[in-house]
Amino acid sequence: MEMTIKELADTMGVSKRRVSYRVEQLPYDSYSKKENIVHLNDKGIATIKAMLSDESVRKEDITDRTEAKQNKDKQRTDEQFPLNGELFEQLKIKDEQIKTKDQQLNNLQKSLDYQQRLLDQQQQLSAKDQKLIENMQARVSATSVEAEEYQNKMNELEDKVVQVEKNKEEWQNSYKKLSEELTELKEKMSRKKWYQFWKK
Questions:
Q1: What DSSP assignment string belongs to 40-58?
Q2: Model confidence pLDDT, tens digit, residues 104-135
Q3: Which residues pair with 34 in a beta bridge?
Q4: Measured between alpha carbons, how far is 69 from 33 in angstroms, rounded to an integer?
Q5: Does 38 reside within a domain?
Q6: Taking the mean position of all CA atoms in its chain, how far away is CA 59?
Q7: 38: enclosing H helix or E strand
Q8: In-domain check, residue 183
Q9: 19 burial class (0-12, 13-18, 19+ CB within 10 angstroms)?
Q10: How far apart are CA 53 and CA 46, in angstroms?
Q11: What mean pLDDT do residues 182-189 have?
């Protein structure tokens, strides 16, 4: 009687993997291969059963059966709910979209922070410019006051020059008049002297 690994595993209620692992420990005369399928003879079947009867091996097989059952349950779940895969893919896509949006928001926040720094710098420069303008206006105003004072003094000096010129003209007229009177007086005195001379 020959049995394949799967048939022996199903008969003993253990995993195919566990039986395959034990087959690798068997001598070559315990099995044969036909079309790449292992066929166990009576000697091989008996040896495998003896190996698997060990308690520690059975505990391992229990674990294997649990894993096999979980795999079957998962397979049944996938068959019953074929949309789970699609939902998972959609969730992955949504997750990538959220990451992309987060990155975009992060970049936008960095851009806003940069714009705010530029605005602050511009406001600081504007404040400095305004202060400079005020200082210049104050200087211009002070200069205007000084210029007005200089203009007033210049006007006063011009008035004094005009007055001096006027006084000069008056003095010249007075001097001319006095000179004429003096000349006339000298002539009179001279005539009087000659008159007295001839009178003697």
A1: E-HHHHHHHHHHHTSHHHH
A2: 888 888 888 888 888 888 888 878 888 888 88
A3: 37
A4: 29
A5: yes
A6: 62
A7: strand 37-40
A8: no
A9: buried
A10: 10
A11: 81
